[in-house]
């Protein structure tokens, strides 16, 4: 499994993501700088990490979504390569229109940084197949702009198509319909605000994030 | 040529920052403010003869996120 982590100026969860990928695959990911125009040959999993790419200038994820490497990421996603965007990575994926909706300032205006309970809404996707349907898992969040918004028709559509991967079990940031993670139409792109890479070791306080990587990277225990 | 771009949240999109500003105004004793919506103002200095279509594309592709925002272009 050849994995890649995209690194933007201001990314700060790229190394945690790399540790998660290496823990599960046994092989260090390629760290790909935002100015690159191509992914390493044979990349078969792409992660967009959390952080504050480009200092959140204009809108969170807006500049990163227009960076040169994102064209290569979009092409890979189109070919079916799995793409995981966490936190700022989720914001980048919505800004790049690889996922529907937008992530706005938290309804309470505060930065939210704590473990949260999530309900696994779709346990059939390549990212969530190791979870049980409706299972409650615990993963940390750390964000200021995690308030998911889409118009009612879009929300109805993605819910009807089983594209809501995770929902918060109680209020975290004001997200429409408590949505914490969304899949694309083809199911190979997942964006989520909670950080699964921060829940892969017992020293983290929980390991519920590990199964996401194990499922997505094809190494189900 | 100066061009002003006003980016505003679409009607119906909740604006927590506007709400906080509203509360702060009330806290300062300014009554009679019915609502506050916060947006973004961007000033461009572009080549003379830049077309409306190009300006529109700049807004739609980057300056505004049309999922949540409207924009208005004003040639200064």
UniProtKB/TrEMBL annotation, chain B:
<protein>
    <recommendedName>
        <fullName>Phosphoribosylformylglycinamidine synthase subunit PurS</fullName>
        <ecNumber>6.3.5.3</ecNumber>
    </recommendedName>
</protein>
<keyword id="KW-0436">Ligase</keyword>
<dbReference type="GO" id="GO:0004642">
    <property type="term" value="F:phosphoribosylformylglycinamidine synthase activity"/>
</dbReference>
<comment type="similarity">
    <text>Belongs to the PurS family.</text>
</comment>
<comment type="function">
    <text>Part of the phosphoribosylformylglycinamidine synthase complex involved in the purines biosynthetic pathway. Catalyzes the ATP-dependent conversion of formylglycinamide ribonucleotide (FGAR) and glutamine to yield formylglycinamidine ribonucleotide (FGAM) and glutamate. The FGAM synthase complex is composed of three subunits. PurQ produces an ammonia molecule by converting glutamine to glutamate. PurL transfers the ammonia molecule to FGAR to form FGAM in an ATP-dependent manner.</text>
</comment>
<comment type="pathway">
    <text>Purine metabolism; IMP biosynthesis via de novo pathway; 5-amino-1-(5-phospho-D-ribosyl)imidazole from N(2)-formyl-N(1)-(5-phospho-D-ribosyl)glycinamide: step 1/2.</text>
</comment>
<dbReference type="GO" id="GO:0005737">
    <property type="term" value="C:cytoplasm"/>
</dbReference>
<dbReference type="GO" id="GO:0005524">
    <property type="term" value="F:ATP binding"/>
</dbReference>
<dbReference type="InterPro" id="IPR003850">
    <property type="entry name" value="PurS"/>
</dbReference>
<keyword id="KW-0067">ATP-binding</keyword>
<keyword id="KW-0547">Nucleotide-binding</keyword>
<dbReference type="GO" id="GO:0006189">
    <property type="term" value="P:'de novo' IMP biosynthetic process"/>
</dbReference>
<keyword id="KW-0963">Cytoplasm</keyword>
<dbReference type="InterPro" id="IPR036604">
    <property type="entry name" value="PurS-like_sf"/>
</dbReference>
<keyword id="KW-0658">Purine biosynthesis</keyword>
<comment type="subunit">
    <text>Part of the FGAM synthase complex composed of 1 PurL, 1 PurQ and 2 PurS subunits.</text>
</comment>
<dbReference type="Pfam" id="PF02700">
    <property type="entry name" value="PurS"/>
</dbReference>
